[in-house]
Amino acid sequence: MYKVKVFVTLRESVLDPQGKAVQQSLTNLGYEGVQDVRIGKYMELTIDGSNQEVEKTVQEMCEKLLSNPVVEDYRYEIEESVQQ
Amino acid sequence: MKFAVIVFPGSNCDVDMFHAVQDELGEEVEYVWHDADDLSEFDGILLPGGFSYGDYLRSGAIAHLSKVMSEVKKAAQAGKPVLGVCNGFQILLESGLLPGAMLRNKDLKFVCKPAQLKVENNETMFSSLYSKGEKVTIPVAHGEGNYYCDEATLQQLQANQQIVFTYTDNFNGSLESIAGIVNEQGNVLGMMPHPERAVDELLGSADGLKLFQSIVKQWRESHVVNA
């Protein structure tokens, strides 16, 4: 079994109004050093399969559904998990 | 002319769309559930607004993988008119039938109001009864209608006259104030404003009716002999 962590964020070239609002709010709180906030999505998947297969499958899933390549970037981490 | 209104779990403008076609346009129309596997009997496909699958993941992301969407693609390839309104537009973008993507409105607010649009291109099967540059009032109701695409795509949209409607007041931050675009072939239109909610003066505007009438006019001209 593999535990897969997928991170999806808006591409650098895309303005993130939500991140901008949070950055402004942090600044208002007194945290003046915050230069930029980008808000994204975090997903955890549990997948059955061989190591190579999992990597290929995750990449496909990210491109077909989990992210929209027009406006989003994705990255993922794969961890082997021991069945309990 | 026979229209299909595609219904996804979470569609909520399907009844308005049905009403516009049946009662105001006076054409045949049927609801079609998202798992349908044959749309060959229909002459035009309508994807209504709403929140398909609760907007989970991204607006339209899950709906675009529905069974019916491969049939919608076939209809589009066959040159049949395909209209996606609001969530329907978002589904068309996710499915790749139209280029680009939607971001949240620039001020992060859901905006529900009558919007003034400018007809940029009146030489499409959806806009032929409007005049070029005409200002029309059509309601909007969305939180994610901030149209985005890359520079190369935008140049293509402009070069091919694919931008059909723009906002006169760009309230949601859309690139080039884009409110509606067609595909390169001109038979797939996606727009955030709701023409089906503007089909009777009693509703505040009848400006949306001409869009549906344009579709029927084009269809009659190409399908009915001695029309």
TrEMBL record, chain A:
It catalyses: N(2)-formyl-N(1)-(5-phospho-beta-D-ribosyl)glycinamide + L-glutamine + ATP + H2O = 2-formamido-N(1)-(5-O-phospho-beta-D-ribosyl)acetamidine + L-glutamate + ADP + phosphate + H(+). Pfam families: PurS. It is an enzyme of class 6 (ligase). NCBIfam families: phosphoribosylformylglycinamidine synthase subunit PurS, PRK05974.1. InterPro entries: PurS (IPR003850), PurS-like_sf (IPR036604). It comes from Bacillus badius. Part of the FGAM synthase complex composed of 1 PurL, 1 PurQ and 2 PurS subunits. It comes from the Bacteria. Transmembrane segments: none annotated. Keywords: ATP-binding, Cytoplasm, Ligase, Nucleotide-binding, Purine biosynthesis. Its EC number is 6.3.5.3. Pathway: Purine metabolism; IMP biosynthesis via de novo pathway; 5-amino-1-(5-phospho-D-ribosyl)imidazole from N(2)-formyl-N(1)-(5-phospho-D-ribosyl)glycinamide: step 1/2. It is found in: Cytoplasm. Belongs to the PurS family. This is Phosphoribosylformylglycinamidine synthase subunit PurS. Part of the phosphoribosylformylglycinamidine synthase complex involved in the purines biosynthetic pathway. Catalyzes the ATP-dependent conversion of formylglycinamide ribonucleotide (FGAR) and glutamine to yield formylglycinamidine ribonucleotide (FGAM) and glutamate. The FGAM synthase complex is composed of three subunits. PurQ produces an ammonia molecule by converting glutamine to glutamate. PurL transfers the ammonia molecule to FGAR to form FGAM in an ATP-dependent manner. Its main location: cytoplasm.
TrEMBL record, chain B:
The active site is at 86 (nucleophile), 194, 196. Its EC number is 6.3.5.3, 3.5.1.2. Keywords: ATP-binding, Cytoplasm, Glutamine amidotransferase, Hydrolase, Ligase, Nucleotide-binding, Purine biosynthesis. It catalyses: L-glutamine + H2O = L-glutamate + NH4(+); N(2)-formyl-N(1)-(5-phospho-beta-D-ribosyl)glycinamide + L-glutamine + ATP + H2O = 2-formamido-N(1)-(5-O-phospho-beta-D-ribosyl)acetamidine + L-glutamate + ADP + phosphate + H(+). Its main location: cytoplasm. CDD domains: GATase1_FGAR_AT. It is found in: Cytoplasm. The keyword Cytoplasm applies. Pathway: Purine metabolism; IMP biosynthesis via de novo pathway; 5-amino-1-(5-phospho-D-ribosyl)imidazole from N(2)-formyl-N(1)-(5-phospho-D-ribosyl)glycinamide: step 1/2. PANTHER family: PHOSPHORIBOSYLFORMYLGLYCINAMIDINE SYNTHASE SUBUNIT PURQ. HAMAP family: PurQ. Part of the phosphoribosylformylglycinamidine synthase complex involved in the purines biosynthetic pathway. Catalyzes the ATP-dependent conversion of formylglycinamide ribonucleotide (FGAR) and glutamine to yield formylglycinamidine ribonucleotide (FGAM) and glutamate. The FGAM synthase complex is composed of three subunits. PurQ produces an ammonia molecule by converting glutamine to glutamate. PurL transfers the ammonia molecule to FGAR to form FGAM in an ATP-dependent manner. Part of the FGAM synthase complex composed of 1 PurL, 1 PurQ and 2 PurS subunits. This is Phosphoribosylformylglycinamidine synthase subunit PurQ. It comes from Bacillus badius. The lineage of its organism: Bacteria, Bacillati, Bacillota, Bacilli, Bacillales.
